[in-house]
Design goal:
Blueprint lengths: L1 E3 L2 E3 L1 E4 L8 E6 L12 H12 L2 E6 L15 H17 L5 E6 L1 H13 L3 E5 L18 E6 L7 H9 L6 E5 L10 H12 L6
Parallel strand pairs: 4-5, 4-6, 6-7, 7-8, 8-9
Antiparallel strand pairs: 1-2, 3-5
Amino acid sequence: MLDGPAGVLEAVTACPRGRPMLATAVILHPHPLYGGTLHNKVVHMLARALNELGIATVRFNFRGVGASTGRFANGVGETEDVQAVIDWVRAQAPQVPLWLAGFSFGAYVALRAAAGANPAGLITVAPAVHLYDFSAVAMPRCPWLLIQGEADEVVPVESVRQWLAGIPVVPEAHFLPGVGHFFHQRLADLQDVVRGFVAPRLPA
């Protein structure tokens, strides 16, 4: 349980086994009002892929989810939650690079938080560009990976393509044919893309 701006935040940490810790990562879950929690399978698989690369991970519940106190704050308060967790992570490992990752609503919050957090890298999976105004969000200055399923039934793939076409900083984008929003039976593909992007960007 971590101190957050609206009370306490419930978190789960995981460290790489049998190898040095090369980085840390904070991973953000989908929309709190539609069942999103730190136990979401996409969030869990992101953590597993990063752990296998030597990255310690922190998954946490936004305010009002699980044992985290507070109420849903439409992305603004949740960005404050992320910053509190980042501050805690950096206090534990101040010399280690920090990554941010998020899925759906969590991708939106991760992008919002990246401007102030200055992470070493950013991963956004199925960013909810159809729900929120991404035009007001500052673009990250770090290596940035975007993963989007072309058969996403929640986040329209064309909305993501149109958004990418209009922003000044373009991420390394991977559009996966036949993949839905929750990556049913395609989580291994998600892990492969994450590993391929992150591994060469870690400290030797």
